[in-house]
TrEMBL record:
SUPFAM superfamilies for this protein: HSP20-like chaperones
Organism placement in taxonomy: Bacteria, Bacillati, Bacillota, Bacilli, Bacillales
Domain SHSP positions: 25-141
Signal sequence coordinates: none
Family (UniProt): Belongs to the small heat shock protein (HSP20) family.
Protein name per UniProt: SHSP domain-containing protein
One Pfam family hit: HSP20
InterPro entries from the UniProt entry: A-crystallin/Hsp20_dom, HSP20-like_chaperone
Amino acid sequence: MKPFEQMNDWKKNMDHFFGDKFWNEFDDVLKPPIPHINLYQTEKEVVCYVSLPGFDDVRKIDIFVNQSQLELNGTIKIEHHRGQIIKEEILHGTFNRKIDLPYPVREDKIDATYQYGLLVIRLHRLMQEQTKKKRLDIRQLDEE
């Protein structure tokens, strides 16, 4: 019996025991998401720090905000000119990362800056407008 066939059988047994989505929990461990982010929240603001090395033109980074989700698209390029790779720890390549935000944010108050390989995105919380109480008139039917 070939070793990979045994491994496939083992995986099927694990899927049967834990459920077929068991391995999805390990996606971030086996293939870490890029770009790396730190996300912080206050009562009125979310700040997202994004590690994006090597961008000389920030127009090549796409940022989309939709209610309570932030989406980042682009390509991290690290060009080596010669030689054989001995160690490669800096994640690179095309990315499409969707980040769930803790609350809906305003579309008109978003600020993004990029300096020294760090993208900082500031998003302001969408505060629900206070509605005024409106008195409702009641028609009395027994008088009609």
